[in-house]
Design a protein that fits this description.
By secondary structure, the protein is an all-beta fold. The chain has no helices and 11 strands. The radius of gyration is 14 Å and the shape is elongated. The chain starts with a strand and ends with a strand.
């Protein structure tokens, strides 16, 4: 089993910055990818950014140029750096990791961390 824990959420004014961190721990595994999703009240959960262990990245159009994502494969940790935050970035942010156990590649989710951007 793998435990995923997010940290770094909080309240910030529009234009500000926050760093979210994600740490995966537990059984021996190799990290395949780490992704950040968010869910605002009344909306579906959406993919914000994702990074593979090889360093390939994806960003939703709404955050391109403002958010960056990184991963440390040796520590199974990663960060989502959010800059120029807007009120519409307000949501619960979730970290999702895909790990590799031999031929099995399960997905694990964190509990989420609240990000609130005030205007």
């Amino acid at each position: 089993q793998v435990k995923v824990v997010e940290s770094g959420g909080g309240r910030v004014q529009a234009g500000g910055s926050l760093r979210l961190s994600c740490a995966a721990s537990g059984s021996v595994f190799r990290l395949k990818s780490m992704g950040w999703y968010r869910q605002a009240p009344g909306k579906q959960r959406e993919l914000v950014a994702e990074i593979t262990s090889g360093g390939s990245t994806y960003f939703a159009d709404s955050v391109k140029g403002r958010f960056t994502i990184s991963v440390d494969n040796t520590k199974n940790t990663g960060n989502l750096d959010m800059n120029s935050l807007k009120p519409e970035d307000t949501a619960v942010y979730y970290c999702k990791v895909v790990v590799v156990f031999d031929l099995w590649q399960p997905t694990f989710w964190g509990q989420g961390t609240q990000v609130t951007v005030s205007s």
